[in-house]
Design brief:
single chain, 16 helices
């Protein structure tokens, strides 16, 4: 059975033992299983077998100690240690005691040994995951207690406990992020850490504003939204640990399929048509399903109120062309099974459809790039205007600014959704997906913080809260800018022929964690410096 090893530390721990066994199996002059060993061969084999057994002994002693310290894996750990020791003894009996070498039997014993050691390491990794989930649960419990605080005295104590729990979680998630093999999982862990770090900064000032102005609905609602965002980050940590549970108010773990995946699957189905032994009902269902995904994904672009009319018309024309040609292809396919001479017509239709799919993908990527660049140029001055009118206490002007900001936030969320469809790597897709979530939250938190500031213009707490919210929104914009730059570079290389059409990888590894790779790279305000200790 193939074992999925997700962390670099397990691979590094397995490597020395695997090397010793490989060396043993590659030892020269052992190909004849009926030939007895010479004295020199016996000494050399004894040395190799001793090296293997020493490695096994070290593994089993450490593993048994871990099992004794963690009751929930003790029985399993005892069993795999027993298997590993038995395999080591069998190697000794097979080679040293018998004086002969059975290569086939040696391979079987070695596989059993490596399987036992791997299971031991996976059980050890389970301890790390358990500790991480336990730390996450403590943060969740501390957050729940903070949500129920109604005065400053208990808030100080509970936030201190919350900070302690968050420090432990930050350390564990950081270690886990560095240990994960998958670029996508490392990216998601970086995203979760970034969300939690920023939410922690927001939580302090939002809670202080809510406690200082208990009758202010906007301050209370702002605090609730920050808690929701933090639980999203906790939910992602839990998801990456493979837990079946989920945080209250968290988004479902099911990820919608982007149009890039549907286009790739659609082209794969078209290529299947070239074979002579395809299953017609199954192929028909596959093509229809992928076509439906392409149509629905394109609708996310064409339904946008901010899309230029000529761009929308081009996208609709290409999409309708794909639909029309697909229906024609399906009719041709039905005839191919009856009349072999229609193969040439089928090939022509497949090539035409594939070209249209490539054209649609390029148009969608170009649209996402154009919309992103145009929008990011318009964003300057938004927070400065909010701060000016909020500090002046002009509630009417704040409400007018709210409408403009909400439109900007909706556009930013829409652009993030576009990249969720057409991002050239899974890491960038993950970044885009959670950027959309964050912009949805900031679409509410920024106006609420501005309204609280306008209602209590003389309040230092309200000014502090708005400053932190504004800083976090600017950081999210900076993340989107990095995402667009990375995606643009990969897409540019693809269309210049440097990379094949399909799922790309971000250059220089930047796409693996465009968010949260350096979460404190911005210039924090005084409030951010005071709360940064939580993530030091």
């Amino acid at each position: 059975m193939e074992i999925d090893i997700k962390t670099k530390s397990i691979e590094n721990a397995l490597f020395p033992l695997a090397s010793q066994i490989s060396k043993l199996l590659r030892e020269e002059d052992l190909s004849n299983s009926n030939e007895e060993f010479s004295a020199h061969q016996v000494r050399e084999l004894e040395r190799l077998v001793d090296a293997v057994n020493n490695a096994i002994r070290c593994f089993t002693e450490t593993s048994r100690a871990l099992g004794r310290a963690n009751d929930y894996i003790e029985a399993d750990m005892r069993e795999v240690c027993k298997d590993a020791s038995a395999a080591g003894e069998n190697i000794f009996k097979l080679i040293v005691s018998s004086g002969r070498f059975d290569r086939a039997l040696m391979v079987r014993i070695s596989r059993r040994l490596l399987s036992s050691i791997t299971h031991s390491l996976l059980l050890s990794d389970k301890i790390i995951v358990y500790n991480l989930l336990e730390a996450k649960s403590k943060v969740s419990e501390s957050l729940t207690k903070l949500e129920g605080v109604s005065s400053f005295a208990p808030f100080v104590e509970k936030f201190s406990n919350f900070g302690t729990d968050m420090v432990k979680l930050a350390n564990l998630t950081g270690e886990r992020q560095n240990d994960l093999k998958s670029d996508v999982e490392r990216c998601k862990m970086a995203i979760s850490r970034c969300i939690l770090e920023r939410s922690t900064m927001l939580l302090l000032t939002a809670s202080k504003a809510s406690l200082r102005h208990p009758d202010c609905q906007s301050a209370r609602r702002n605090c609730e939204l920050v808690s929701v965002l933090m639980r999203q980050g906790l939910s992602l940590v839990e998801e990456l640990c493979g837990s079946a549970g989920s945080e209250p108010g968290a988004v479902p773990s099911a990820v919608p399929v982007g149009i890039n995946e549907n286009l790739s699957g659609f082209i794969d189905s078209l290529n299947t048509c070239r074979t002579s032994n395809f299953d017609m009902p199954k192929l028909h269902s596959s093509i229809s399903s992928k076509l439906s995904g392409v149509v629905d994904g394109t609708a996310d672009f064409t339904d946008s109120a901010y899309l230029a009319h000529p761009t929308r018309q081009r996208l609709l024309a290409v999409r309708e062309g794909i639909e029309t040609e697909t229906h024609g292809l399906l009719r041709t396919l039905a005839g191919v099974t009856v009349k072999h001479s229609r193969r040439e017509q089928l090939e022509t239709e497949i090539r035409s459809l594939s070209a249209r799919c490539v054209e649609l993908r390029r148009l969608l990527e170009q649209t996402a790039l154009e919309q992103s660049v145009a929008l990011l140029r318009q964003r300057s001055g938004v927070m400065a205007e909010y701060k000016t009118i909020g500090t002046a206490g002009d509630i009417e002007k704040v409400e007018t600014a709210d409408a403009r900001f909400l439109e900007l936030a909706n556009q930013l969320g829409e652009v993030a959704r576009f990249w969720n469809h057409v991002a050239p790597s899974e890491s960038l897709r993950s970044t885009a997906r959670y950027a959309e979530l964050c912009f949805q939250v900031y679409a509410d938190t920024v106006p609420l913080a501005a309204k609280t500031l306008a209602l209590y213009a003389e309040s230092a707490v309200a000014r502090e809260n708005f400053a932190v919210v504004a800083d976090m929104f600017e950081c999210q914009l900076a993340d989107l800018t990095v995402l667009v730059a990375d995606a643009k570079e990969v897409i540019g290389r693809r269309w210049r022929g440097a990379a094949p059409i399909g799922r790309g990888a971000a250059p220089n590894g930047r796409g693996a964690a465009p968010i949260g790779s350096n979460p404190l790279s911005y210039s924090p305000s005084a409030t951010l410096r005071l709360t940064a200790w939580v993530w030091n």
